[in-house]
Amino acid sequence: MKNTSRFFVFLFLSMLLNACVEEVNLPLRDPEPQLVVEGLLSNDPVPYEVKLSYTGVFASGRFLPSRLAVNGALVSISDDKGVRTVLEQDFLEPGTYRTADPNFVGVVGRTYSVTIVTPDEKKYVSRPERLNAVPPINRLYAEFAERTRTRPDGYEIYIDTQDPAESQNYYRWTAYGFSNRPCGNPYAWVPFFSRGINIFDDRNINGKEVKRRNVLFSAMYGSGFHFIEVAQYAMSREAYQFWQLYNEQLNRTGSILDPLPAPIKGNVVNADNPDDIALGYFQVSGIARRKLKITPDTKFSQAYVTDRSAPFVTGVSGLCNNSQESAPRGWE
Amino acid sequence: MLFRRKSKTNRFIYSYLLLDCLPINSISPLAMNLRLHLLFIFLLLGGPLAWGQRFTLEGRVFDATTQVPIQNASVLVRVIEVTVKTDSLGRFKLTLGGKAMHALVITAEGYRTAYYPNVVLMGDGNMEVPLKTFAQDLDEVTVRERKADQNVRDVRMGTVQLNIQKLKRIPVVLGEPDILKALTLQPGVSTVGEGAGGLNVRGGRTDQNLVLLDGAPLFNTSHLLGFFANVNPDVVQSVTLYKGGIPAMYGGRLSALLNMTTKTGDAEQMRISGGVGPISSRLMIEGPLLKNKITYALGARVAYPNWIIRRLPERYRGSEAFFYDLNGRVQYRINDRHSVSLSSYRSLDNFKFSVEDTAYNWVSQTAGFQWNSLLSKRLSFSINGIYSNFKSDINGQQRANEFQVSSAIAHRELRTDWLYSLEKVRLEAGANYIWHEVQPGLQTPSSDSSNIIVRSAQTEFALEWAAYLQSEWTVSNALTLQAGVRYVNYQNVGARNVATYEPDLPRSIESIISTQDIPMGQVIDRYGGWEPRASLRLALGRQSSVKLSYNRTRQFLHLISNTTAISPVDFWKLSDSYTPPQLADQIAIGFFKNLKENAFETSVEVFYKDIKNLVEYKDGATLLLNPRIETDLLPAKGVAYGAEFSVQKTQGKLTGQVAYTYSRSLVQVQTPFAGERINNGEWYAATFDRPHNLAISLQQLLSTGVFLGFNFVYTTGRPATFPDGQYRLFNSVVPNFSRRNDDRIPDYIRADLSLSIDTRKVRTQKKYSVWNISLYNLLGRPNPYSIYFTRFNTVMRGYRLSVFARIIPSVTYNFYF
Q: Can you list the domains of chain B with their CATH numbers?
């Protein structure tokens, strides 16, 4: 609903057939580097990871340049019962810290907080978050979707889950999959991931079913298997708001009907200076997972092979990125 | 020209009276009837005369066509240079020396000046002054339309009277003459962007303007999301904008008063007029139901943008847009002392965007009853009953999630206003009572299979009453003082569930200590107080004056909107325990000087405005349907100041205005909780803060009925928040926006040209048409509307969006039958 408003202007601009969009150079200011925290603690098996970096200029989101990684920080996670564990830095991955204690596992109902002492002796502490229980994914299913101008034929992946009526619930979904594609002989397995931040709050449907929530699109480049795994997270309200802002920030269209841009304030704050708020978020979540295996469907693949000289088969960038010949582990 | 339409009355008498004649074309035939009246005075009272004896001359100024009294017309007595103003019933009163010959000049905005050069009083007298509108005057430019030096002599400052007739002569966008767009050419009035609704007056927000249509407040002023104003200019009789020095009679909004009145209808015969433009068509019918007793005026405007949409690329095809507005007014002139009128207005918009399966509707409605009465020569009153509402709906049509979210505001008001005028003092007093009802949001499923549940923000109720007293005292020719005070009391009442929050924590759902159900009708909070209003004028010679004004205003209604411009998801909210009323104090000083016998009017006005309790929003606020919206609101302080310079040429073939404004509008959000502060609690520029603002608007008469119009606008780009750095989070590069409104989009420059052709051969011609050919954005400059940032793969790129990136030509045809 929120995203709708900005389409208004776009429609009108086009309607008047006079609007135009031009690329401009960013008049970037150069503020002091700020600490960025990315962490997740859940009821999944150990280890849990916290990544620390500084703000700067990035060429790509995949890799963290070592000059912007925060190495040599003291990172620990503690719970409301006073249990504390120190995280160890992974020296192969700059700025990444992991729990080492195999017994430190997230428990539903407990409250967790991260403490970070940076190399320049600044101490940051996250506001404690409760590990909320998550309802299971009741149904995970795929529906064939015909190609559009922007994507090939494929499967839309949906989930259904029952929202508990007694509490306010905030959800997030991530998903990944492998599909068997014509990359090599005969086929190879290509991993792919859900894009964007898929979040939902139950205010509008409290106590009812979350139905037909789209979590992933699995493109069909051949008549092979599709393996899908979906994770459903229970989040705090604060974490939900954080992701909501994060989403808005990444999807701005420049209309004056867009919400005003704002810093995405996280939950990690300098213990000595409340005005110094780190970017990023230390999220504490209950996670439920579910897997789906889509067997090749003759009908669709036949149609695919015979009738459609799909423009997506050839020359699609990333079609065979990171492909592997053997089936992924855990799916056989 | 004077005798083009032969008067039935005796020309000898005129000739006799017009001994020392003035430019002949400045006298209207109707003015001659008056001279006849005066002659009667002369004859009837022509007894023994005494030198030095003083008599009282009373009069009534009214619209020659509609018989409607004209308020605020100036009656100037030449030589002694005394000016009086007419009251709301069009009445004025003068005390003049007997036997001497006086010259009277009667002027009113939008009307032709009436000139009575030889008024001789033999005793107390009465006169009727019918004024003709410019509309009937083809050759108006040769008439010295504003002989009176109103801007210098009036005690008021910071006011703009818009000449409705000129609207058809200035360049327009897509053929729509627009009252609000025309006002943005005035000093101190700006807008946040091209195609954005509402006005920002002297650094005020768009919701801080009290927009009155026949006394009823409008809660929305836009069609098509802000591209056009929703009041049909054809039906409007007068438009007055008060940027400061708001009379004590009015309250409830902080920054400005925009007072529009509609036509009451032609008293003599039925008339039909209208217009056809590329986006909409207009029709107006007016006339007498009972000659000179009951008149009516009906206006309608309907838009058809859908045909444009059908020409759009396929993905927009299912989209729809539509709007209309209707006006109606009936007036019954019972006798010379009493008249009643009924007026009503309705405006509707709907908009559907196919890609998102969401439709939007919004509707404004008003209804009003007015009784004007003249109890004695000195005392008059009016009683008004006013109803106004605004509703907006969002309809979601996504499968399994069909919903409707509606919000509404209703305003019910009773008011009475009294005027008592003495020789040098005018006293105005009155009171009003308002019942406010606001439904900020109600969500319902709109199909049986919808998964959406019913959810709502709490309905709000409040009552507001106010009383005022204002006097205008002409101390001497050089000094006029207007002082008023308004007392307002506001109470928000139940039924309502009110939460109490932990005082040492930021307000949030988690920090609620307790909640309490307040029963229906019980008072929850009381706000209000005194609002002083004062103006002073000191003449410096005949052609210049200095004016001062101060006013305090309160606002109990807030438009909740976390976007740069007014959007369809905005809604209104009443003041409550956690949202105190906004309060503003404005002080202004101005210098006014006329040159070349008032051909040029120049002015400089400087203002300073201090605002408390502005409503700001926490980062990431959820506004719509939030039952505890106070948890997402923050109180802010505001300050606005500026200087407005204006040069206006009112006579000759070339008329127009050059206005330059320098102004700032700043906001500060300071709370005890660091995480809530915006820009660390420092002052920052309001989203509509545009320091430099130059507007030139010129009209050149080419030949009879043919005008060339030209506009030029330059404004500083509005503030925006650009990313200042990036960071990496969950494999994405995220821009960081650490400082709100610290950057600006590039400056705005636009020039427009128009040609308007009036087909009348003579000014009395009843059937004629007016063509307006406009070229909007003549320079074809892609003025930036906004700068935004989007990820391209993983790299952030900035884009500049322009709304009208080319010349927008349009043709509008107006007809009068």
A: 11-131 (2.60.40.10), 209-816 (2.40.170.20)
